[in-house]
């Protein structure tokens, strides 16, 4: 968090310095870059309102800046303004990213984000279409496959193909249950490993450290599955 705060301060100083120049027009692009970098530092430092404001400044000056649109979509979907998710507005920003398929990661990931929002709105047909578009953009994600399976299962139920839909959703549930069991087992092992760590955590047993790091990675991966 400290590093992000220092980065925000540095880019703020840079922006103020550019504004103090007489020939500000010569530094326009540099100023936009500073706003972009400050926005990213604010985002990762959990200063979401500041991040949103800076991303808005970036797209105002550079409407085709895909990365800014992507993060604006994430923030609006998160509901950082008055704790209300602005899903439709978020989708518009994600669609801006999808206009540039040459930016594989952002185009595909944006379509994946749209699919998740469509699922929240229970618009399963549009969600499935967005997931297909993401796949066509060569976006690869284990999470996306799970969302695709879920959406496909629900669509089979809607089409009254009950047996097929139930089978897909049952298989998906088994995967999630297995993952939960793996995490529970790892948590149990971590409790045992804590006995090998000194009070200050300075002489952590190597095996305990490896186990802890694996557990942290496993928990993060599980959260990613469900995001």
Keywords:
227 residues, mainly alpha, disordered C terminus
Could you tell me the radius of gyration in angstroms? 22 Å
What structural class do the secondary elements suggest? Answer: mainly alpha
The global form is flat
Measure the end-to-end span: 23 Å
* Percent of residues in β-strands: under 5%
Helix content: over 70%
Low-confidence segments, given as residue ranges, are 221-227
> How many beta-strand segments?
0
Largest sheet: none
The mean pLDDT is 83
Question: What sequence of helices (H) and strands (E) makes up the elements?
Answer: HHHHHHHHHH
- Per DSSP, the total helix count is 10
Structure description:
With 227 residues, the protein is mostly helical. The chain has a domain at 166-227. The protein is flat, with a radius of gyration of 22 Å. It is 77% helix and 0% strand.
What does this entry show, briefly?
With 227 residues, the protein is mainly alpha-helical.
Task: Give the SSE map.
Blueprint: H1 2-19, H2 28-44, H3 48-61, H4 66-78, H5 87-98, H6 104-120, H7 124-136, H8 142-158, H9 162-193, H10 206-226
Helix pairs in contact: 1-2, 2-3, 3-4, 4-5, 4-6, 5-6, 6-7, 7-8, 8-9, 9-10
